[in-house]
Design goal:
The chain is an alpha+beta fold. It is 17% helix and 36% strand. The chain is built from two helices and six strands, in the order βαβαββββ. A six-stranded mixed sheet has the order 2-5-4-3-1-6. The longest helix is centred in the N-terminal third of the chain and has 16 residues, at 15-30. The protein is globular. The relative contact order is 0.29.
Length: 163
């Protein structure tokens, strides 16, 4: 799948779901019911259907770089928040009564106790920690003139200029 450089997505995801997402990827690689050429993905829930609707319109069928802020992380957090994970956004699906309508194999096990109240699920391939963290202050919202403040914390997904 081609990747667009027109924009990217900045999103917070609880650290436990990112780590559990890696386990979901490993489970997909080991699953007999999936075809050998299946590319593993992880689905995260969100109420921000407008953001993902805009992304769908703009992406023209291409994958979108996603920079992820590990929220609710254990241990000391830097004074200036950083993106520490990334992946490729490959699409979103509406929820079914708040739950993911696809295979449970795509959801991190750590989300099993989440309340079924999500509006949309966004799917990511190639989820992995970044080798070098990216300061949020080096990023800029899509069509904005200035970068985010050094201590800006995303409360939900936002479209950003491609870094």
């Amino acid at each position: 799948m081609q990747k667009t450089h027109a924009f990217a997505i900045l999103a917070p995801v609880p650290e436990e779901h990112l780590l559990s997402g890696l386990e979901a990827i490993a489970a997909q690689l080991d699953a007999d019911e999936l075809p050998p050429d299946h590319v593993p993905k992880v689905a995260f829930g969100s109420m921000d259907f407008e953001v993902f609707g805009a992304a769908e319109k703009l992406r023209d069928g291409q994958a979108i770089e996603v920079l992820i802020y590990a929220s609710h992380a254990k241990g000391d957090q830097p004074l200036n928040p950083q993106m520490t994970w990334h992946g490729l956004y490959v699409g979103s699906v509406g929820s079914r009564r708040g739950r993911y309508p696809g295979k449970g194999l795509y959801r991190p096990k750590s989300t099993a106790t989440d309340s079924p109240n999500w509006a949309v699920f966004w799917e990511v391939q190639g989820l992995e920690p970044l080798k070098t963290p990216v300061p949020i202050g080096s990023l800029r919202g899509k069509d904005k003139k200035t970068n985010y403040q050094a201590r800006f914390l995303p409360e939900g997904p936002v479209l950003i200029e491609f870094p």
